[in-house]
Amino acid sequence: MTLLKRFVLRLFISLKYITANVVDRNNRRIVATSSTVEHSVKQSLECGRTCNAKAAAIVGEVLAMRFKVEGLDQVQVNGIHVNVNKEVEKKGFKNRTKVWAIVNGLKSNGVKLILNDNKNDSSRLISVN
């Protein structure tokens, strides 16, 4: 099985909570997760605001740390694949800033990300350790 799109970012954004998972497509399992539902994450948010851009950025940062703790940043060949356009379409235009906050949280913590383009199925690396 090819490692071309081994790790993929999946986002779940509701009116109350944000959850982000890194999925290993080869083994069909979640390898790292972060959510505003978690007590430790929820405590770090101001006034219990669990679904705004600041909360999304914290989810991205925590996800990046957990991904590194698992040692997966050393194993990955290409990076984590993210289709931002697809995620924004699924979550709605109002959640665009939350999607980008998670992506930027990962990127600012040194995780390699590969943006996948919906239209022509091309990819580009946006962050390198």
TrEMBL record:
Query: Gene Ontology cellular component?
Result: ribonucleoprotein complex; ribosome
Give the record's keywords alphabetically.
Answer: Ribonucleoprotein, Ribosomal protein, Signal
GO molecular function, one example? structural constituent of ribosome
- What range does the record give for the signal peptide? 1-20
| GO biological process terms, semicolon-separated | translation
The UniProt similarity line reads: Belongs to the universal ribosomal protein uL18 family.
Q: Which protein are we looking at?
A: 50S ribosomal protein L18
